[in-house]
């Protein structure tokens, strides 16, 4: 097991290298460049050229890449082209809000979806099953921007229950309750999608397990239905559930770009959109790199959890 | 020997999209403490459904709609789920056909074995573990102390069936239902498992309902035999009478279709022509009518009843051919009752 983890980490290094190469060249293929966005429209071509030279943007792409990657190995992610702040600092400021938003959304979504999925499987083809699957279908298919605008319209604009966006009240003194108040609507939107997806996986995975012989054995022992479902059946249907969690976790970092934009949540998603519109390549590269690392870590964790959930899976 | 189980004319129905389907109809048999009864018959004749009916382990759409199941003097045919939970694994336990799929793959042997022990015998975690190791040793599992922490996939089919038997017998049940316990195992392991069941039966005086379609197993294990056909018991008697003096045309057909070691090499085995009627389309009269060499006109119209005849041991048959013997038995016993 330990060897397997080491091997996986070693494999991750070339993968990450490939990710940076693709990222860098694809971003540089996009039309326009940071200088166009940052200088005065009346600047002369000489001034533009001077700025480009100062930023190293007049060099060939592969030289730029070389400069970037060597700096990366020194732990330096560079400076933002638009705000001139160190990228590390910008990232750190935006990671917290995203992790908070996504973490709460994932937990809320799962806490609702997993019991509902089990219930649906136990009561297959009953009205409750149809109701929940109907809702989950809604949760998966409604676009986040649409649902987001919808809940803002109803709960913030008409009912005035919650703020329309951002993380804290402007000019307020912050505080936990204020943040929670701002958190509810975006969490509602994200948890609907996350939960809707999870319900279907839990339901089908449980249905698959509920017909198995060993559950009849468990029942023949005189165990209660609660233990049969939640100990014997649930543990056997964990593999698909872990898979879905493993896919969801990178969202913790990747952020929900659309939802953060709709609610003006100051996380990585919002930062991504801002970096794209301002051609802030160095920030964008850093976000992409962080997302790639998260995906790789989540995949590794998923594989390790498979072995924990099912003793038949061994990596040696 | 007192009577432990009396199954009286139970009818098990399944609700399907095409309407209710009767899988078991008028099945009756009884069993004393420490006795072994074999339910024999071909696939789909209702042997397993009968046993699952006793345990209330039928799928959600199946239930016993008529008849009674007296266990230890109490009718459990319509018992509540909470009552059944106290009986299952404690008074009645069960072994299934497929040892490869009957154990939960993600829980250790010990975990699965001690669950029932902790629940019914109220032992502590440690006591239950020690008791479980003892049970594993009893069913002949080597290295029981190590095996208890293993997962089922590390064990062979025969070993898993031993674990199932240890699990089933751990709470000293009064009745063990074994649903084709050896069908999925190879012949040498079969013999070992049967021998094990016999020894354990002698140790603990457990009554056994053994479901099988192997008449060799019947001869080895049974005290009594009930032959089933298309959801009904067609003949019930003790094992010696069944092999010496089989009566029902279906039983006779089964006997003829067993290969014997003394048969000449080029001899073709007998078979019963035709196939079992479908559950959706059961004949009104005798269910064996289509395939019976002695079929009469009245078999098509009238339904034969399972009735006793005079023999060395109790012997009941569901066939019009023995109507005369059945009547004689009835009048004789009616006279006896009057005189006593």
UniProtKB/TrEMBL annotation, chain A:
Keywords, in A-Z order: Cell membrane, Membrane, Transmembrane, Transmembrane helix, Transport
The keyword Transmembrane helix is annotated on this UniProt entry: yes
Bilayer-crossing regions: 9-30, 99-119, 131-156, 183-202, 238-258, 285-309
Residue stretches making up the ABC transmembrane type-1 domain: 95-302
UniProt-listed Pfam families: BPD_transp_1, BPD_transp_1_N
Membrane topology: Multi-pass membrane protein
CDD domains in alphabetical order: TM_PBP2
Entry's localization field: Cell membrane
Family membership: Belongs to the binding-protein-dependent transport system permease family.
The protein, known as: ABC transporter permease
Automatic annotation (TrEMBL), chain B:
Gene Ontology MF term list: ATP binding
Location(s), subcellular: Cell membrane
Residues passing through the membrane, by range: none
Residues in ABC transporter domain copies: 5-255
Record key words, sorted: ATP-binding, Cell membrane, Membrane, Nucleotide-binding, Transport
Chief location: membrane
Family: Belongs to the ABC transporter superfamily.
Alphabetical list of PANTHER family matching this protein: DIPEPTIDE TRANSPORT ATP-BINDING PROTEIN DPPD, OLIGOPEPTIDE TRANSPORT ATP-BINDING PROTEIN APPD
The protein's name: ABC transporter ATP-binding protein
């Amino acid at each position: 097991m330990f060897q397997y983890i080491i091997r996986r980490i070693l494999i991750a290094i070339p993968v990450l290298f490939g990710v940076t190469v693709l990222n860098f060249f694809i971003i540089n293929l996009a039309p326009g460049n940071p200088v166009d966005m940052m200088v005065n429209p009346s600047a002369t071509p000489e001034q533009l050229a001077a700025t480009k030279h100062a930023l190293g943007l007049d060099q060939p792409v592969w030289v730029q890449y070389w400069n970037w990657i060597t700096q990366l190995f020194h732990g330096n992610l560079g400076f933002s082209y638009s705000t001139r702040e160190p990228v590390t600092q910008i990232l750190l400021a935006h990671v917290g809000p995203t992790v908070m938003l996504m973490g709460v959304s994932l937990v809320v979504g799962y806490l609702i979806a997993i019991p509902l999925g089990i219930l649906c499987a136990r009561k297959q083809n009953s009205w409750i099953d149809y109701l929940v699957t109907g809702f989950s279908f809604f949760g998966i298919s409604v676009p986040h921007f649409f649902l987001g605008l919808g809940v803002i319209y109803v709960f913030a604009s008409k009912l005035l229950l919650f703020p329309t966006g951002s993380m804290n009240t402007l000019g307020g003194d912050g505080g936990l309750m204020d943040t929670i108040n701002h958190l509810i609507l975006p969490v509602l939107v994200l948890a609907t999608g996350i939960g809707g997806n999870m319900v279907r996986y839990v339901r089908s995975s449980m249905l698959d397990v509920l017909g198995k012989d060993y559950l009849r054995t468990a029942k023949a022992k005189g165990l209660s239905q609660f233990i049969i479902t939640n100990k014997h059946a649930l543990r056997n249907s964990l593999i698909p559930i872990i898979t879905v969690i493993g896919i969801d976790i990178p969202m913790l970092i990747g952020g929900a770009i659309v939802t953060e934009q709709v609610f003006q949540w100051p996380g990585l998603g919002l930062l991504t959109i801002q970096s794209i519109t301002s051609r802030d390549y160095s920030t964008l590269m850093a976000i992409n790199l962080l997302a790639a690392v998260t995906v790789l870590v989540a995949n590794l964790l998923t594989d390790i959890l498979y072995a924990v959930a099912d003793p038949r899976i061994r990596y040696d | 020997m007192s009577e432990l189980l009396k199954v009286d004319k139970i009818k098990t129905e399944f609700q399907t999209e095409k309407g209710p389907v009767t899988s078991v109809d008028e099945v009756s048999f009884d069993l004393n403490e420490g006795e072994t009864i074999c339910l024999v018959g071909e696939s789909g004749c209702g042997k397993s459904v009968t046993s699952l009916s006793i345990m209330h382990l039928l799928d959600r759409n199946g239930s016993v709609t008529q008849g009674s199941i007296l266990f230890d003097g109490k009718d459990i045919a319509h018992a509540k789920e909470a009552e059944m939970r106290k009986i299952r694994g404690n008074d009645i336990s069960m072994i299934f056909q497929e040892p490869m799929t009957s154990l939960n793959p993600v829980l250790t042997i010990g975990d699965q074995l001690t669950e029932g022990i902790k629940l019914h015998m109220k032992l502590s975690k440690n006591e239950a573990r020690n008791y479980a190791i003892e049970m594993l040793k009893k069913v002949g599992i080597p290295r029981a102390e190590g095996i208890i922490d293993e997962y089922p996939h590390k064990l062979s089919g025969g070993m898993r069936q031993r674990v199932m038997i240890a699990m089933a017998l751990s709470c000293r049940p009064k009745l063990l239902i074994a649903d084709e316990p050896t069908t999925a195992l190879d012949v040498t392991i079969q013999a070992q498992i049967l021998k094990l069941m016999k020894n354990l039966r002698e140790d603990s005086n457990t009554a056994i309902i053994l479901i099988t379609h192997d008449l060799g197993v019947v001869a080895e294990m049974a005290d009594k035999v009930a032959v089933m056909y298309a959801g009904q018991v067609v003949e019930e008697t003790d094992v010696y009478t069944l092999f010496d003096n089989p009566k029902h045309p279906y039983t006779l057909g089964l006997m003829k279709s067993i290969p014997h070691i003394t048969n000449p090499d080029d001899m073709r085995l007998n078979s019963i022509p035709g196939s079992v009627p479908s559950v959706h389309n059961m004949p009104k009269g005798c269910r064996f009518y289509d395939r019976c060499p002695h079929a009469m006109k009245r078999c098509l119209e009238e339904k034969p009843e399972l009735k006793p005849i005079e023999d060395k041991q109790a012997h009941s048959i569901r066939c019009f051919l023995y109507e005369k013997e059945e009547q004689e038995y009835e009048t004789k016993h009616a006279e006896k009752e009057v005189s006593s």
